[in-house]
């Protein structure tokens, strides 16, 4: 007959608070160890802080040397009333969303074929894909503009959206490098079960590559959201299809000395992408750091 052993209840010992001098010393050591990072953070955050403070100033305060607004003034309603920001936001959202979907749909199969399938000329095809990254965009601007002009697409967002549905070299490279880090055993097990390559890509590889896909999607969305040259080139003559970048540039030219209203409009343009980055920060960082582990 076994004896029953009674365990004594765990007693939470009170945590001893460190002396103030020790805590201060540790804080100063931590600040010294991260001094370069702190200085870099201040350099990056200072312009953003300037934009936020200026957006709450009056017109006279924005033109003075004051840093802190006193009194605070709400300029965002005026920014919406003096420019069709809602229409610009809708155009930008359409451009960014369709471009992101197009990049994912067109780049994922190519990256899968270059990383998981064995076929003659695969490395040559990959080198050709990388070679397109070395080609400056200015080289292809004129022939592309002539082609879209003949198709009567100039003045719309389609010349900006359509190219993203034919693959993106950087996205293909990023996804290909991540796909190569996935063990082949997963794909081999799926082939034994009778799965086709398409099903393996959709049900096995894509589920394991969510961080890389999130990183590619975020890169594509941010590029389209901040793109200025493309919308200016193709939609410059039709303000009904302007994006936020073009609309903000026009808003800036109309309010040259009203920095408070200009900064309010600028902050409205920046907030969505900042919120999106922080929402997808974990997947984005994981996708970028894990890419390129296996060559």
Please, could you describe this protein's structure?
- The protein is mostly helical.
- It has two domains: 57 residues, no CATH class; 209 residues, MetI-like fold (Orthogonal Bundle), CATH 1.10.3720.
- The protein is 69% helix and 0% strand.
- The chain starts with 19 loop residues before the first helix and ends in a 5-residue tail after the last helix.
- The model has no long low-confidence stretch (mean pLDDT 85).
Could you name the key traits of this structure?
295 residues, mainly alpha, 2 domains, 69% helix, flat
Give a quick rundown of the structure.
The chain has helices spanning 20-33, 35-55, 59-62, 76-82, 85-115, 122-133, 137-150, 158-161, 169-179, 184-192, 197-208, 210-226, 229-235, 244-254, 259-279, 281-290. By secondary structure, it is an all-alpha fold. The mean pLDDT is 85.
Secondary structure layout:
Layout: H1 20-33, H2 35-55, H3 59-62, H4 76-82, H5 85-115, H6 122-133, H7 137-150, H8 158-161, H9 169-179, H10 184-192, H11 197-208, H12 210-226, H13 229-235, H14 244-254, H15 259-279, H16 281-290
Principal-axes geometry comes out as flat
From the coordinates shown, what is the CATH architecture of the largest domain?
Answer: Orthogonal Bundle
- Report the CATH C-level class of the largest domain: Mainly Alpha
Provide the CATH topology of the largest domain: MetI-like fold
- Low-pLDDT stretches: none
- Total domains, how many? 2
């Amino acid at each position: 007959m076994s004896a029953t052993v009674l365990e004594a209840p765990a007693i939470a010992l009170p945590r001893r608070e460190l002396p103030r001098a020790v805590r201060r010393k540790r804080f100063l050591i931590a600040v010294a160890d991260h001094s370069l990072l702190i200085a870099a953070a201040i350099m990056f955050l200072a312009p953003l802080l300037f934009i936020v403070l200026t957006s709450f100033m009056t017109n006279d305060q924005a033109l003075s040397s004051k840093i802190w607004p006193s009194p605070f003034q709400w300029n965002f309603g005026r920014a919406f009333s003096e420019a069709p920001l809602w229409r610009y936001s809708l155009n930008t959202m359409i451009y960014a969303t369709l471009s992101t979907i197009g990049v994912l749909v067109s780049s994922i199969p190519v990256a899968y074929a270059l990383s998981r399938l064995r076929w003659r000329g695969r490395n040559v095809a990959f080198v050709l894909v990388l070679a397109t990254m070395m080609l400056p965009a200015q080289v292809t601007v004129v022939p592309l503009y002539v082609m879209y002009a003949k198709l009567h697409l100039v003045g719309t967002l389609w010349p900006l959206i359509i190219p993203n549905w034919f693959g993106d070299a950087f996205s293909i490279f990023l996804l290909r490098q991540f796909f190569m880090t996935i063990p082949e055993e997963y794909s081999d097990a799926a082939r034994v079960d009778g799965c086709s390559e398409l099903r393996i890509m959709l049900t096995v590889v894509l589920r394991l590559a969510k961080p890389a896909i999130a990183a590619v999607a975020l890169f594509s969305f941010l590029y389209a959201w901040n793109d200025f040259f493309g919308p200016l080139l193709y939609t410059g003559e039709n303000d009904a299809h302007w994006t936020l970048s073009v609309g903000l540039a026009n808003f800036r030219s109309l309010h040259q000395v009203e920095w408070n209203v200009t900064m309010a409009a600028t902050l409205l343009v920046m907030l969505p992408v900042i919120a999106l980055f922080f929402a997808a920060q974990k997947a984005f960082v994981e996708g970028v750091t894990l890419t390129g582990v296996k060559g």
